[in-house]
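Support reply, case 0932

Customer input (verbatim):
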Amino acid sequence: MPMRVALGIDLGSTSVTVVAVRVDDGGAEMVASLSAPNDAETTSAHDRVIGRSEWDIEAMVARVVRTVDELRSGLDFDEVVAIGVTGQQQGCQLLDSDGSPIGPFIAWQDQRCKDVVDGDGGDFLGLMASKGGATRRGAGLPSFRDAGCPIVTGYTAPTLFWLDYMGMMPSNAEAAITAPEFLAHKLVGSKRPVTDATDAAGWGVLNVPKRDWNDELIGELEIGRGLFPEIVDSCTVIGGLTDELSGLTGIRPGTPVSVPSGDHQCAFVGAVDDANDTVAINIGTGGQATVFLGDLSSLKRDPSDGSIDHGWLELRPHVESGFLLAGVGVVGGRTFRALKDFFVRTAQTVFDVDDVDEDRVYERLAILAEAVLTDQTTDAMTSSALFTGSRERPDARGTFSGITPGNFTPASMTLAVFRSMASELAKSYRSAIDLGAGTRERIVGSGNGLRLNAALRQCLEEAFGGPISIGKVREEAAVGAALTGAVAVGIYPDIGHASRVLMR
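Our regenerated output:
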């Protein structure tokens, strides 16, 4: 029987991943995957020190093309029926009237919007919040009404605001776009990129309940409305693969390409088969605990203005319909990395060891923590692993307490960090329940930061009070992107159906 596949491309911050997913009436199954480093960063040493993060977006696309070609050449299949795209949902690339890039791609890690505004003492985020009438719930970060997210440096609209305020907006800039949207734009050879609501949410000025740009807010911020791409429905074919890229990848010219969707949403699609009864925990560089809402009727409203009350959690449009309510950016792989870096620096500065195998340090710390987890004779050290604060408490910092001579060890420190990470993620879920989202019976985990760490999984099971299931699909975001392509060409009726028939 002929095998048809949909390709899914995840253009991430650290790597590019391409997967092939068999798609037919019998179900969907990932049959191959290939990843390569995203090595297109161009930030100078000086600019890195001051918090810049700049990349060559054409080099990023070239890396994707090479990876697609390498994956295809090693596969035996009959036809690629669709291409789906996902990737980092924030960042900013300016384009000219021909759709060619102007200047570097400014990535989501960029910190320029935290620069002090001359003569004011505050930063650009504060100025933007003031101009747009943002409000602050408790001690959390300010957010615009119905934007679903706080005002964060690295998001697309704050970067545009900075460029305009600093007088650095090029006169020939006709459009702004994120990295996955630029990739899709290149794949089909369009002059004017488009987006969907899941990706547009990462700009920071989307009206999430309406799934459309907040034109009034954009006007208040004095950002050129013409820079914003058209929002089309998720799982929409935006064009066919160009002859040029067909020649570079070996894939049939005209192969349909679907509008990109956000990597968080695509990862949810790739990991969860029952959206309505599952809390999804993903730990990669960052970390999220996420629940799906079919509509917003169950959530509380802010009594002052009638807007959706999502507390300190983020409210994001899901693919096609519905919404995701998630604790985003609290803890994750970078939390564990901070602890790993401490022990690496200790080896380098105290013991004068230059050649430290950092992957081995990760592995050893996780093994040590797992051993302590089963030892009930040692007093437990505790930690707050909010080393860089959180959305709820941006000024919070990490702590260790309950230290005794007996537990003052690398193993106990690591276990304390893991338990704190688990506690924060469980707190996200409890906050969603308090806001009206309701409880979920199933817990699904994804991401290598969780898959490769048995001690952290056990800590999460303690914090959530139930077992975590982890599927065999390792590249959930890329697989989710492939399924958006399969829905776009009519192989599956909707993304919920496609997710349910995915073999995990």
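We compared this against your earlier run and they match. Two observations from our side: The radius of gyration is 22 Å. The chain has 16 helices and 22 strands. Please reopen the case if you see a mismatch on your end.
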